[in-house]
Specification:
The protein has two helices and twelve strands. The protein is mainly beta.
């Protein structure tokens, strides 16, 4: 698989095991609780030291319309880390908010037209008080 969204590019093998629990065809909504996604991508060495193999729970709303990918909201977590995002990936200008915690370390990042603004103090509080992308 090779995927390029905004200024992010991914390549590697993907294995998906989907368990469709419910489908609302008229609303274009699909509930796939219990699905499994396995990614086999070349990662920098520092990523492997932070995110060792294991399982995580992820939940979110994902929309793909024309050339825009919208993740609002999206969360992933296990006993080692938490991730939360509200992202709009369009061409070379990603926009939205991102929060990550690994142990006692956390960071918030605001993306505006591809520019990054970091929030290192009170990152979770900052993220929790940001509006959804649909209300901006």
């Amino acid at each position: 698989m090779r995927l390029s969204v905004a200024d992010l590019e991914f390549a590697g093998d993907v294995e998906v095991e989907t368990r469709l629990r419910r489908a609302e065809l008229k609303a274009h909504r699909f509930h796939a609780d219990g699905s499994r996604l396995e990614l086999k991508k070349e990662l920098p060495g520092w990523v492997a030291r932070l995110a060792d193999p294991g399982e995580a729970s992820a939940e979110g709303r994902v929309q793909w319309r024309n050339d825009t990918l919208l993740l609002d909201p999206f969360t992933a977590a296990n006993e080692r880390f938490d991730l939360a995002a509200r992202l709009r990936l369009h061409e070379k200008k990603p926009a939205g908010d991102f929060y990550a915690r690994w142990g006692a370390l956390s960071i918030g990042m605001e993306l505006v037209d591809g520019d990054k603004h970091l929030h290192l103090v009170g990152a979770r509080h900052w993220f929790d008080n940001r509006p959804s992308l649909s209300s901006r």
